Amino acid sequence: MATVKGKTMEKWISEFPDLGPIINYTPFYWSNPYVKDNKTAFQSQPLQLKDIQDAEERLKRFAPFIAKAYPETEKAGGMIESPLKKGNQIKERMETITGQRIPGAFYIKLDSHLPISGSIKARGGIYEVLKYAETLLLENNLLSEKDNYSKIAEDKYREFFSQYTILVGSTGNLGLSIGVISAQLGFRVVVHMSADAKQWKKDLLRERGVQVVEHPSDYSKAVEEGRKEAENDPKSYFIDDENSKDLFLGYTVAALRLKKQLKEQEIQVSPEKPLHVYLPCGVGGGPGGVAFGLKAVFGDAVKCYFAEPTHSPCMLIGMMTGMHNEISVDDFGLDNRTAADGLAVGRPSGFVGKVMEPLIEGIYTVSDEQMFRLIAEMADAEGIHLEPSAVTGLMGPSYVVQNNPKVTEEDTHLIWATGGSMVPDEIKEAEYQKGLEYKMNPDAK
């Protein structure tokens, strides 16, 4: 009889009954029994609010450079930020699809339309590259924190950075964000990409002068190879999606920005008027960083949930069993094959899983068929095209309402849309047409 980490499958399911539907690819909601109140949860955290504020100050220093290098950010003063949009139409469609009334307001955070690289990865990936660049310049007496950082766009800085190489392993969007900003600064860039990565993302990187190394295996292998290559070159810097605190901090800053947007739109957030946030999750860095920032800023007034593909629920399995990165979806026979390339991860980040274990309310899974249908629903309802991974947040509110009778009209639901604006038109159309086919089949799971 096959065993997983020394236990039979029957033993695993007897200890964790929720594994049954999960290993059968059935869409499922798991309520996190390890969640704690905010004060208790933050007592043992490796990062605090002051670290998030420090990251925000660094991004403000770089704003003049960003505005100069990327004119599309000029109006926002060099800030890489996305709109917050009300989603009344898609809310109505989700109520029809799920048969579940959803009390409360419905909003969409359009990280799918972030400047420069068009996905949530623009937050963490770009931040870590900028921090590394700043560190090099400060160490070599080429920059002072009091300088106007727009001068970093000058050729002499590009020549300096050309001595150094930045490497990353990616399924797509992280590699895209790191590749684009690193090449702009003048770094040599190598992106190791897994078999799941979309061809158009590889092509776009190559157009920007980035070296793309393709691997026939999954995300973990791409990361392993990138890390290995960096170890052999003292002037190489590897951005570790699984363990990087700097990458994580880049995502956390979103909470400070969101707080301002909520205030501008007169959306109140308090324990009596909670904010529910739904975040697509792959290895965990992006959603973990955003959720951590939100908990640091809003405390117990915010409730965070992760969404994963039924074929790649790595964070769910890692957190549920308490084994985090010591266990993978492959151990349970799941194939880790999904159209949601950014979420096609078999093993979660141990760092993120342990940080988030006491902070998130739950995790749920979404099938590929549901994703494609939701692409069409979102396009028809709101005129917005999202990638398959980016629509997974839409399923969250119905799950939460089903499992939490305390949700009222005073609550606010926020769908974090993570990518899609840079998808080529022909691929958008193909995904939309596939979604229409599933719309015609209301029984699609």
TrEMBL record:
Pfam family, one: PALP
Needed co-factor(s): pyridoxal 5'-phosphate
Entry EC number(s): 4.3.1.18
Catalyzed reactions per annotation: D-serine = pyruvate + NH4(+)
UniProt cross-references to PROSITE patterns, sorted A to Z: DEHYDRATASE_SER_THR (PS00165)
InterPro entries, per database record: D_Ser_am_lyase (IPR011780), Ser/Thr_Dehydratase (IPR050147), Ser/Thr_deHydtase_PyrdxlP-BS (IPR000634), TrpB-like_PALP (IPR001926), TrpB-like_PALP_sf (IPR036052)
Keyword match Lyase: yes
Modified residues (N6-(pyridoxal phosphate)lysine): 121
Residue stretches making up the Tryptophan synthase beta chain-like PALP domain: 101-418
Keyword terms, alphabetized: Lyase, Pyridoxal phosphate
Lineage top rank: taxon: Bacteria
Family to which the UniProt record says this protein belongs: Belongs to the serine/threonine dehydratase family. DsdA subfamily.
Protein name in UniProt: Probable D-serine dehydratase
Organism: Oceanobacillus neutriphilus
